[in-house]
Design goal:
alpha+beta, 10-stranded antiparallel β-sheet, about 25% helix, globular
């Protein structure tokens, strides 16, 4: 993304004011409270519970009998009007665990605060009151960001009541994260951060006994292995429940085919930790099709339990009969039939908790009087405790649940890329947060010193100046947040919150860096992309443009020394750079290209502007820089600071302007070539080189032709191309010859491509514009050689070869994606014969086609952790063995958070990304990334608007000036703005397999946690690069977290977290366990450790022993082979921590509360 979207307050505030009047924005109802029309049938099951009357009664109902002869009512009405709810499990019976819950999205159709004010406050408030009325009642709650808001507003007596309920385990926190995070979009570090924040709030107010015991990911649209092993098993939580699973897998298990029975199993998600990181897992049964509601609901005015025989509507006998029928039906689809769980609730339910509990009390009372089955209030923790006692075995699964499909043509793989700007903002904010935390600890800079609290802070948990930023980033990891499946104004709200709180963090960073450099307060500036006019990603930075000299302060958040090339916008083309002690530093000034110059102008919303006003606005937005200064930041110290001084107009043999770019295939030549049919004019090949790589471009096609690693001699054919899939608005899928007839489901469906669903109308992508030979411009210099290629005005990339770098950088820029498609013949016409515009949705890809023979397999990372093997048109060993992929493109797309790789057993091509994207390998040796998407239809999953983003945050289509658009949006007056434009980076590694696998983890760390750059034009005294560590960590260990934000909660102790970077078997040496002596790493004054105790992942309770050992079986031969392979390579024994030494197994994450001098 060129920058984090600049918030236009004039547009945003009226929209928020309008939304503030809306209520009931949940899975079944729109923001006005009306039932959503056209909601897809699979989605209806998620927000529609069963109802009385669905089943044919097995008894003659009391109210249907002759009043003269029917006698007494079948169930005696309690004379004291009190219901017996004190039951518990009964051996030998079907035990129904009734789990009251609500699912509260922290933003979706409306914003997090609007949901809280209009709905969630009343959920929590009435539940607290109602639980207190009966000690047997129970309730589970997930989203701590909402509970924290309620806590801040609740009177003391309500807080005291809530505390008692938590102590009595009537109110149980489950999951306990700041939100219910997405599992496809965040890096694992962001998942851990937001979970930790929630757990710290719970610890702060309720103590370690209240720490969650299970995870409840009921609404995310797919589930990752990392969630299973790290955020569940390794977080001290023994269970993981959700509401969505793939329809073919669910159908197989519901119908008890291929040796299955039920939706529960033991999930072993880690190949590195094996059986030591298992969790009890399952899809909630719902009414047989999954979902997180159940056989009935008491929300609203539907049928209630009427047990008074004096009333005409007496129906308790029918309710009991229904209950017994439902329990028996679910038992027939449950492996341990003696215990079953009913999730009672749905989106924002229990706003009138008394209505729910009054009816549930009656049901429990009368069902237990009947005696056919046993019912009682329960929680997932109590349910799993009973499952542990069963003597049978559960299936062991190692597969993940991506991509999920809820029907044959409905693959939830579009959201892997949706709203890429927000995805990028969360990713980079996570990196800034890591650096800010370290600087706060190292410089002991307090929030009082910073004295710039966020104007609208997140509910307070810790005492740091990073606390609010942590909260706003955390809430955006929500599964309807950075997933990209929320409405546009909610996206704007997430972005605004992050940007606002980042200003406080930047003030803190500036003060901390000033302390280290002994500068006056306010001397340091930043360009961290929280506004359009200060973003290095689009080469805009007021702190360095128009200056004759400035100093770069580079903070390295990694615990290893790294080297990086910084790209700094400047004025003028002749610069010299020295380090902090005056030594010359390699640098190179490159003229700013026209594509980059134009990016800031895209933020202009010209609605209602005159020609003069438009010109004035463009002048304000115009980039004042004319060059980019590339600076080699070499050997940055681990967790440390280095400075670099840049000065203009200095003679230097090291720094010089690059030669003017060479136009290899210019516009004029392309025009001539495009006119020739069928191909392009012949031209000589072009080769560019660094000391590591050689690239050859084909003279005829203009595409990259080959890649050679000069150091190892490895070479492969390699092409980089652009394309776009036409978003389906319903129709028939064409099956290619690779899909056998036996695997073909009916090809036609009305499913459209939208924010959640990716469905192209063809398996062949279109060229991004009129067919043409890509323009190519080459710029060679001493530090970097660049090859800029233009496929169309909205699809461009720059390939960079850096000196002494083990990777090739591809900086891609996508957008503004046009809505119309005038270069293709019209496919529809008006009644009078006039052509209608091709207003088509476009799903834009960058494709890397290598010469590697990979056997139609490839690897994607799981939230930046372990690599998962994928195979074209296949699923893992515990899926149905006749699994049919009816969408050959969308059904092979997976989330890519950090990297995707193909190898032939000898050589590997790995592509690293700085933003989560959808990725696939549709042909052998080829990988493609969906870098952007702009669709023109809604996919009927509840968000009710198309994914049609612009640079100004307005998104409706067919909106005439001053009018509402086709979907009733943009009531603030209109939108005349360019489509959202994205910029990101792919790093290509190609070498022998061990070399690539050694390098890719370290490079991914640098890409996602880059040096934090600050700028000053003040005079800086000589500064020797300085590390805060006594020794670097081993190369395979990551310093994940070092923060003082929770120190006040833990008697001054800091939260310290380490992780192994490599998976088992990933590399011959780097995949071995690593031992760290904390007293050596943290031995310097100011950061000298004296003690540490290990805790759970969320630092909310001491680390206990291994979780329950489950009895398991392997259902298929393929699963048995995989389990055997995992067992041979896994490290299943955790080595106890004995201060000061800790040993980390491959992939392992260990968390401590540490005392520092």
């Amino acid at each position: 993304r060129p920058s984090c979207r600049k918030m236009i307050v004039r547009r945003l505030l009226p929209t928020l004011a309008l939304l503030a009047q809306r209520v009931r924005a949940n899975g079944c109802h729109d923001a006005a409270g009306k039932v959503i029309t056209g909601l897809a049938q699979p989605e209806e099951s998620f927000c529609t519970a069963g109802a009385l009357g669905e089943e044919t009664p097995t008894i003659e109902l009391f109210r249907h009998k002759d009043p003269k002869t029917r006698g007494e009512a079948p169930y005696p009405f309690p004379p004291d009007r009190k219901y017996n709810t004190s039951g518990g499990p009964v051996s030998g019976k079907i035990n129904v665990h009734l789990v009251p819950h609500t699912h509260d999205d922290t933003g979706w159709q409306v914003t997090v605060d609007q949901y809280f004010a209009s709905e969630v406050f009343y959920v929590i408030d009435t539940v607290i009151t109602t639980l207190a009325a009966d000690p047997n009642r129970k309730f589970i709650y997930v989203e701590t960001a909402f509970f924290a808001r309620w806590w801040e507003q609740a009177p003391d007596e309500k807080r005291a009541t809530a505390t008692r309920l938590v102590q009595r385990r009537q109110l149980e926190f489950i999951n306990g994260g700041w939100c219910m995070h997405d599992e496809a979009s965040p890096l694992w570090t962001a998942m851990v951060d937001q979970t930790t924040r929630g757990h710290q709030f719970i610890f702060k107010h309720f103590g370690p006994e209240a720490a969650p015991k299970g995870t409840w990911q009921i609404d995310p649209f797919g589930h990752s292995n990392t969630q299973a092993w790290l955020l569940s098993a390794e977080a001290g939580m023994e269970s993981l429940f959700w509401g969505r699973m793939d329809w073919q897998d669910r159908t197989m298990r519901y119908e008890r085919k291929q040796g299955t029975n039920g939706f529960e199993w033991v999930w072993q998600g880690s190949r590195s930790l094996g059986s030591s990181a298992q969790t009890f897992a399952g899809n909630l049964f719902g009414r047989g099709a999954g979902g997180y509601s159940s056989w009935f609901s008491f929300e609203g005015s539907g049928a209630q339990v009427n047990d008074d025989p004096a009333l005409f509507d007496y129906n308790v006998d029918q309710w009991v009969d229904k209950f017994v029928q439902n329990a028996r039906e679910q038992a027939s689809h449950t492996r341990d039939a003696e215990h079953q769980i009913w999730a009672l609730g749905s989106d924002f339910q229990y706003q009138n908790a008394d209505q729910w509990y009054r009816n549930l009390d009656k049901l429990i009372h009368y069902v237990n009087l009947n005696g056919s089955v046993n019912a009682f209030y329960s929680t997932p923790s109590l349910y799993v405790d009973q499952k542990k006692r069963w003597n049978g075995t559960y299936e062991l699964r190692t597969d993940d649940i991506f991509p999920l499909a809820d029907d044959s043509h409905n693959y939830w793989s579009g959201y892997f890329t949706s709203r890429p700007a927000l995805k990028r903002q969360v990713r980079f904010a996570t990196g800034v947060l890591a650096s800010a935390r370290q600087l706060e600890v190292v410089t002991q800079t307090t929030a009082k010193e910073v004295d710039r609290p966020s104007a609208k802070h997140a509910p307070v948990v810790g005492s740091s100046w990073t606390d609010s930023f942590e909260g706003t980033v955390g809430v955006a990891t929500h599964h309807d947040g950075m997933s990209g499946t929320e409405r546009q104004d909610v996206t704007d709200d997430y972005a605004m919150r992050i940007s606002s709180s980042q200003k406080e963090v930047e003030a803190g960073i500036g003060l901390a860096v000033s302390k280290l450099l002994k500068l006056e307060r306010g001397a340091v500036s930043h360009c961290h992309c929280h506004a359009a006019d200060d973003c290095l990603n689009i080469s805009v930075c007021a702190a360095t443009t128009g200056k004759d000299a400035f100093t770069i302060a580079a903070w390295n958040p990694l615990a290893h020394s790294v080297s990086e090339v910084a790209r700094i916008p400047v004025s003028g083309g002749r610069w010299s750079v020295t380090d902090g002690v005056g030594r010359a530093v390699p640098s190179q000034a490159v003229p700013l290209d026209e594509r980059t110059k134009a990016l800031p102008l895209l933020y202009l919303n010209s609605f209602g502007m005159s020609t003069r006003q438009v010109a004035e606005a463009k002048a304000r937005l115009e980039n004042k820089a004319d060059h980019v200064l590339m600076v080699a930041l070499e050997s940055l110290p681990p967790v440390g600071l280095a400075t670099f001084h840049a000065a203009a107009d200095a003679e230097s043999t090291v720094a010089r302007a690059a030669p003017s770019p060479v136009d290899v295939a210019g516009e004029a030549a392309q025009a001539a070539e495009a006119a020739e049919a069928p191909g392009f004019a012949e031209a000589a090949d072009t080769t560019v080189e660094s000391d590591v790589f050689s690239l050859t471009f084909d003279g005829a096609s203009g595409l990259l032709k080959s890649l050679t690693n000069k150091r190892s001699g490895a070479t492969t054919a390699l092409a980089i191309s652009w394309g776009w899939y036409n978003s389906s608005v319903g129709g028939c899928t064409e099956y290619g010859p690779e899909v056998p007839p036996s695997a073909r489901l009916p090809p036609c469906s009305d499913q459209q491509s939208g924010a959640y669903i990716f469905r192209p109308n063809s398996s062949t992508p279109f060229f991004p514009g009129p067919a043409r030979k890509p323009a190519m411009r080459v710029s060679r210099g001493p530090l970097v050689t660049e090859v800029a290629q233009t496929f169309s005005p909205w699809a461009t990339h720059v390939i960079r070869l850096f000196r002494n770098a083990s990777f090739v950088e591809v900086e891609w820029t996508a957008g503004p994606i046009p809505v119309e498609t005038p270069w293709l013949p019209p496919v529809a016409r008006h009644s009078d014969g006039r052509p209608m515009p091709n207003n088509w949705g476009k799903e834009v890809i960058v494709r890397y086609t290598s010469g590697l023979e990979a056997g139609h397999t490839w690897y994607t990372d799981s939230n930046g952790k372990e690599m998962v093997k994928r195979a074209y048109n296949r699923r893992g060993p515990t899926y149905p063995h006749d699994y049919n992929i009816s969408e050959p493109v969308a059904g092979n797309y997976y989330p890519v958070n950090a990297m995707m790789a193909v190898d032939d057993g000898t050589h590997e091509l790995a592509v690293l990304t700085d933003i989560s994207q959808a990725g696939a390998s549709l042909k052998d040796g080829e990988v493609e990334f969906m870098v952007h998407r702009r669709v023109q239809a809604d996919d009927s999953r509840g968000v009710q608007e198309p994914l049609n983003e612009t640079m100004c945050g307005c998104n409706d289509i067919h909106a005439a000036p001053g009018k509402m658009g086709a979907h009733g949006r943009e009531g603030d007056g209109g939108c005349e703005c360019a489509g959202l434009t994205m910029r990101g980076r792919h790093l290509l590694l190609f070498d022998k397999v061990p070399a690539v696998r050694a390098a890719r983890r370290a490079l991914a760390e640098q890409l996602n946690f880059p040096p934090l750059l600050s700028f000053t034009d003040a005079k800086v005294a000589p500064f020797k690069p300085s590390s805060s560590l006594g020794a670097p960590l081993p190369p395979n260990v990551k310093l994940v977290t070092l923060t003082s934000n929770y120190a006040d909660i833990h008697d001054g102790q800091l939260l310290l977290r380490l992780s192994h970077l490599y998976g088992a078997g990933e590399h011959p040496t780097l995949s071995q366990p690593a031992t760290v002596d904390l007293s050596q790493v943290f031995s310097k004054e100011g950061l000298k450790i004296s003690a540490a105790r290990e805790t759970t992942l969320g630092a909310s309770r001491p680390l206990a022993g291994r979780n329950h050992v489950w009895r398991t079986h392997l259902r298929t031969e393929a699963a048995a082979r995989e389990a055997e392979e995992i067992a041979r390579g896994a490290f299943e024994s955790r080595q106890p921590f004995a201060y000061p030494k800790v040993t980390l197994r491959p992939m392992e994450v260990r968390t401590f509360l540490a005392t520092f001098a």
